[in-house]
């Protein structure tokens, strides 16, 4: 833990200068022109800095949800509003975190975890009043969808399409999280709990990824006017698996698009399509969450 | 005007009994078991009945917007909140009506005019905060989209596809309103004024319908990987016309679906897809508007 440390600047941090210093010296210690606290941890910062909102953006980890889970717990317990773009804590402990936020009378928002800049969660909550949502089915992982689209349009085997996705930066060096269906499962858990009021964790889902899908499967589906997509589905159970859907189905989106279909009792099937990820898009979701917290405060 | 008349029942109207009476006797006069006011007009009802909300659902008429325009004006002037599912008054006089509602401090909602049960207008207002909407392009008329889809998938000429749409009840006996692009234009005006804050009326739009689209045009587009769709577009001018878009474009929805794409600066392109019309769907939008008015009251 020798390399723990935190930068704190009450007037606001000059991110450009900080990044420059990190690039040149390998640390954030700097030249003394800003306050650097040797040995200070993120939890310390959350507890000690007088702030109203904590924004948690560490990477998703699905075994224990750490370090995000500890950050979110500490922040909620300290009475901070929390905006979280990290799916790990939610996939593992969402009901408990919602309860903790409620108990401490603070706002807990996580729009960026599902759909990137596409306001999937807010849409279902704010725009579908008066209709009952009967089921949700969705394409929530851009990497898998890119790979399946490429396999479909160009007849490429999985391995080649994956290599291409990695080259374009759509897929990680270890693609298990995406093509194994785990990213889709996280997002489905979050959406279902938020929109349908379930209390799921990722352990409750049956998860099958796309590793077993062959160009022959895709060709066979095409001969029936269908495409194969990695679909997450709740309503009569919750699962993630490759499914055949008609070419004309609203979920048949190509490339890295995400799409989510809400089946409603009175407004029909409503589908939201957008870019599922991206730094700028996720940042826009954080901004929206901040605006909402500000508004809730103002009341 | 001899056949003017109104039914008024303070405890609520039994619609089933009323319809039955109309079916049997051809009038709503009934057998005296409810109050029937001979000679009373809709405007009289709006002015004389003590009510908080007027719901205007007469059919769209685009020459003068009547009788809906007079109903909405009378209701707003009398200090009633108004829910309007009729596009005519809005396509012709939306800025003036918005101003009238504002002046009388009442709520004026019209969710059902665009997208049927798909909450297009609310989505843009409530879920895209923090992002600037740069342009809107959309498929807003299910009839035209059904016809173009049929021409595309089955190589049918316009006339045959139209006859089929009429047989299925998707198209009116006089299809000008739909296939001439006027319905799309109305919805585009309403969406642009509501979401982008423009002050358009239908006269400001360049409107070209789908009557000139041939199976050959569609075949030629297909050879380039494109489809032809009737698209309404605002952002650098406002117009309605058939356009070629790639098969993989999120607006490429089939059958009677509607789709609307918001181009945003920070959240990417976001598309909403749903059933564009239908009695049940429009009723669900009225219900949502009522809930919102109730909530605005409650504050």
What key attributes describe this structure?
homodimer; 299 residues; alpha/beta; six-stranded mixed sheet; three-stranded parallel sheet; 11 strands; 41% helix; 20% strand; globular
Protein architecture, described:
2 copies of one chain form a homodimer. In chain A, α4 (about 85-105) packs parallel to α9 (about 180-195). In chain A, β3, α3 (about 70-75) and β4 form a beta-alpha-beta unit. Chain A has 11 helices and 11 strands. Chain A is an alpha/beta fold. The first copy, chain A, has a 6-stranded mixed beta sheet. In chain A, strands 3-4-5 form a 3-stranded parallel beta sheet, sandwiched between helices. A two-stranded antiparallel ribbon of chain A has the order 1-2. The N and C termini of chain A lie far apart (about 45 Å). The interface of A and B includes residues 117, 123 and 127 of A.
């Amino acid at each position: 833990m020798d390399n723990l440390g935190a930068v704190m600047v009450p007037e606001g941090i000059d991110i450009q200068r900080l990044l420059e210093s990190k690039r040149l010296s390998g640390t954030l210690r700097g030249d003394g022109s800003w306050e650097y606290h040797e040995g200070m941890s993120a939890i310390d910062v959350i507890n000690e800095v007088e702030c109203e909102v904590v924004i948690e953006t560490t990477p998703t980890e699905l075994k224990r949800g750490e370090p995000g889970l500890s950050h979110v717990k500490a922040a909620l317990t300290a009475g901070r509003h929390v905006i979280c773009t990290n799916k790990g804590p939610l996939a593992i402990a969402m009901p408990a975190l919602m309860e903790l936020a409620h108990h401490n009378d603070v706002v807990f928002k996580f729009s960026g975890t599902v759909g990137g800049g596409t306001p999937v969660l807010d849409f279902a909550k704010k725009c579908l009043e008066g209709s009952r949502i009967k089921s949700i089915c969705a394409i929530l992982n851009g990497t898998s969808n890119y790979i399946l689209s490429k396999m479909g349009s160009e007849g490429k085997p999985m391995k080649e399409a994956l290599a291409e996705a990695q080259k374009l930066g759509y897929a990680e060096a270890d693609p298990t999280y995406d093509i194994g269906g785990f990213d889709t499962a996280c997002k489905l858990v979050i959406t279902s709990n938020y929109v349908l009021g379930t209390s799921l964790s990722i352990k409750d889902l049956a998860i099958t990824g796309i590793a077993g899908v062959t160009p022959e499967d895709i060709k066979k589906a095409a001969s029936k006017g269908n495409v194969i997509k990695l679909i997450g589905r709740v309503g009569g159970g919750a699962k993630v698996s490759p499914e055949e859907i008609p070419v004309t189905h609203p979920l048949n989106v190509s490339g890295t698009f995400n799409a989510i279909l809400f089946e409603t009792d009175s407004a029909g099937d409503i589908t939201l399509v957008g870019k599922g990820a991206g730094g700028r898009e996720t940042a826009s979701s954080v901004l929206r969450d901040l605006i909402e917290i500000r508004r809730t405060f103002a009341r």
